[in-house]
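Might you be able to check the backbone structure tokens below? Thank you kindly.
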Amino acid sequence: MSTDRADAAPAQTPEPQPTGPQSTGPQPAEPQEAGQQVPAPRRPAPQAAAPRSWFTVGLRLGLGLLTAYLLVQAVLKIQNVLMLVLLSLVIAVSLEPIVALLTTRGMRRRWAVLIVIVGLVVVLGSLVSLFVPPVTGEVNALVKAIPTWLQQLHDHHSFLGRLEDRYHISTKVKTQLSGGGAGTVVNGLMGAGQLLISTLTGFFLVITLTLYFLAGLPTLKRFCLRFVRGSRRERAEAMTDEVLQRTGRYMLANVATSVIAGLATLIWLQIMGVPYPAALGVFVGLMDLIPVVGSTIGGIVVSLVALVVSFPVAIATAVFYIVFRVAEDYLIVPRAMKFAVEVHPLVTILAVLAGGALMGVIGALIAIPVAVAVGLFLDEAVFPGIAAR
């Protein structure tokens, strides 16, 4: 019987043992049943940022402040040159409508720029020629009158002789010259010479820069637009063209109001018999290009010149300029500027005052174009986005 039980039992064969090294890596995931969610893999814990050294932070901050200070000092040292560059750019933008008009009629831009520059030089030369004869005549009269004045100082019956007897003018002048006053006079003459040289240099620099800006204005505009993203470049180009067009209109309107001021001065001075009416009319026209304060300064100077005729004529001239200033501020300038620039007159006045306080005469000149650019940016970019919210 034992033999039969041994035959009936199944034979068990031992399982083969692996002979190689066992793998300790991750085992493949068992197949999941349908509907069972797979657990998301765990993200590694973020490593804590290394603490920054206060020395490094202070060093970077100090270097930044030092760089900003050096940049500010550099700008302050070259601020006069920057003013001339800005003035040249404003003049170029103002002349751009004339160049564009010539190019639309089939003329090449280089020839249009040359014609505009030659015309500008001719106009400036004509204006200067109006001032040369009066100034030359007055200088010659002064030189011829010096010997007569010296003789009158020793004449006790003349007006200068009585002043000499009372205040001892010649003695005081000699004392000042012998006590170091001669050096002051020489320094004053050298300062006047330096001022004349710097003025002429600035004038030729403005003419040269205006020529280059006017010739390369399209290239300069394309270069500046390359800093704008491609999706916004077309809109930025349209806004730039609009700003340039409105700026040109403003300058043309400003020139028109200045011509009106110059012609009114010429007519008034001819009626009242004040000398040098043409030169004074040109002077008032040039001063009127400076917004807000230019016409006032011109009126004061002309009123003082009118004193050579008589005191009543000077008073009448001052009253004329007060009336003309009121008419210009409330009738001529607001309408002309609103038509040309489409900026409210109050914004125009505030912009001119702010620009003049920050950058002087040139700041007053470029204040309106800046106001135009800011207003156009608000209308085209800021206000539509606010209204769409």
